Amino acid sequence: MGRPATGHVVRPTASRPSLGLRFWAYGNREFLTLGRPQDGWTLERAERELAVVLRDVELGTWRRRMPDPTPTAATDPSFHVFASGWLVAKRVEVRPNTARSYSNDLTNHLLPFFKDHQVSQITIQEVDRYRQAKVREASEITAARQAGKPRMVEVVDVGRRRYRRPERALSARSINMHISLLAQILAVAVDHGHLEINPAVGRRRRLKAEKPRPVHLDSADQIAALLEAAGEMDQAGRTTGRRAVVAVLLLGGGRASATGALRWRDIDLANGRLLVGRDKTNAGVREVDMLPLLREILTEHKAASTATDPDDPVFVTSRGKPRDRHNIRQRVVLPAVRRADKLLVGRGSEPLPLGISPHKLRHTFASILVAIGRDPAEVMRQLGHTDPAFTLRVYTHTMRRSDGERDRLRSLVEGKACFLETKEPRQAAKAHGQATSA
């Protein structure tokens, strides 16, 4: 039997200006947008609507309303109206992060160019003109930055704080992704008879994009330096867990979003298993066999944590909120990379490769597994991959390591390397106290 019909009214926020209903129906969690206060929706009216919805659920007559992506009254709608309707319909089909990405690309790129076009006016020539305009814009942004006069843009971060930063030039890959999104929207326009052909389809509409160069941490020294740097940040900061976050990315292959979503029930320290169950793909839902070093670091992190109930988040901010992918990138990985570079250069070694990000640390995990002798099938299973091509590329890259470097990597991940002494602050203090009393 499904869950009973329960729910509540969701009040408007800065990011969601409409009232809404969140409720359980037929065992599923549903959300229904009602309307904005300026359109006449009040809390009292929303409560009445909730009562009606819950009654219909109890009777078995409630059905999810699927929005029509195109207005039936318009035979040739504007691109702005059509694309907005398409996005509303698409939100119920894709994950929230994907919907946000679509919304961002539409708002900041496609709509400013095509907003005054009727759908029928979007031709192959117009798509080519959009591509050319974006290439020119990227060249101008790059030239301004090289001249020391970067163009500044205002950004709103995940905490709703506004700040200004230099504008970034779009890569060929990003421009191609915008055109692919346009092709998705116009495919529906073709289905609805607004266009005879899809003008955004075809290789000639895309730019030739260079394949991103592989970025891995190529040595045990680099991996150890990054973990050491994150440990130093733990000792100097108001919160702990940065070293453990980096360890999960490097030695557990988690995506940043899945790492932030970890709960203590997902970590089986006794049996050395890490359950990655909140990832972006079905294949990403997997059980990872913890390498000994990861198990050791997570054990220390749990001992230093104040909230370790099964449903408590493993990694939290100074405000006690779970770290999200943005926080992990901006507050953990990038600062740790900068600190690791200083450590390595101070020791006469090369700094880390350019372009290290949370996802590149996941690639490093694959590289580590191959280097210590795991076969491609096992690497695919641990990563949650369905495409063997990436795994084989990593395998070829890693097989070029010398035997000595493989031995150092194996020693590191098995927790035998003597240069990994950094503990979590509370754990280190406990150890120091024991040593003093002795």
Structure description:
This protein has 438 residues and is mainly alpha-helical. The chain is built from 15 helices and eight strands. The strands form three sheets. It has a three-stranded antiparallel beta sheet with strand order 1-2-3, with helices on one face. A three-stranded antiparallel beta sheet has the order 6-7-8. A two-stranded antiparallel sheet has the order 4-5. A hairpin with an 8-residue loop joins strand 1 and strand 2. The protein is globular. The C terminus is likely disordered.
Within the largest sheet, what's the order of strands?
1-2-3
Radius of gyration over all CA atoms, rounded: 26 Å
Q: If helices are DSSP runs of H or I spanning 4 or more residues, what is the number of helices?
A: 15
Helix-strand topology string? EEEHHHHEEHHHHEEEHHHHHHH
Largest sheet: 3 strands, antiparallel
Q: Output mean pLDDT.
A: 81
- Which structural class best describes the helix and strand composition? mainly alpha
> Are there runs of 5+ residues with pLDDT below 50, and where?
67-73, 419-438
What's the total number of strands? 8
What share of residues are in beta strands?
5-15%
Q: What is the helical fraction, as a range of percent?
A: 40-55%
What coarse outline follows from CA principal-axis ratios?
A: globular
* Terminal-residue CA separation: 60 Å
